Structure formats: C-alpha cells, structure tokens
Amino acid sequence: MSNESNTTDWSEREIGALWKRSGSNQKYLSGKVKMPDGSTQEIVIFTNKYKNADNQPDFRIYKSTNSQQQEPQSDGQAEVVVEEGIL
C-alpha cells in the first residue's frame, strides 16, 4: 500500500478533530465532529471525576454551547485532569 493511498484512506475516515484547552480551573478538549447528515457538531469532552468502577466511562462528551467555547461550566458531572501523553 502506498503512502499516498494510506493518507487518502485516513482522510476519508476522519470524522472530527479535538484541541486541548485550559479553563480557569480545569483542562478539557473541544472540537467538532461530522454528523451522518454531513453537518458538524461542536463538542467538549471532560474527564469523568465520578468514575467508581471499570464499567463507567473515563470521559463524557457534551454538545458545545457558546458559553462553553469561552469557558466551560461543568454541571458537576465531570472534571478534567489532562496529563501529557494521556490525551
């Protein structure tokens, strides 16, 4: 498989992108994902600070709102602690 066709394959499979962000008291990820209808949805991702068992999620994904783009306000469901190499 050539490098060019491998790059094209990855481009065709891509459904979004995320960026590391820092709020005043937490770190989080923000980005966009492509929906099945072709539209895009802005999202934010927080670490699940209430994880008590392996069957509970490590992260929670939320639809972004305008206020979250400026400064995410956690609803008590999540807190982000991002260490280099983990995200």
Notes on the structure:
This protein is an alpha+beta fold and 87 residues long. The protein has a domain at 16-70. It has two helices and four strands, in the order αββββα. Residues 69-87 have low confidence and may be disordered.
Low-confidence stretches: 69-87
Measured distance between first and last alpha carbons? 29 Å
> Into which percent range does the helicity of residues fall?
10-25%
Provide the succession of SSEs.
Answer: HEEEEH
Tell me the strand percentage band: 25-35%
Strand order of the largest sheet: 1-2-3-4
Structural class: alpha+beta
Biggest sheet overview = 4 strands, antiparallel
- In round numbers, the mean pLDDT is 79
Individual helix count: 2
Radius of gyration using CA atoms only: 16 Å
Overall number of strands: 4
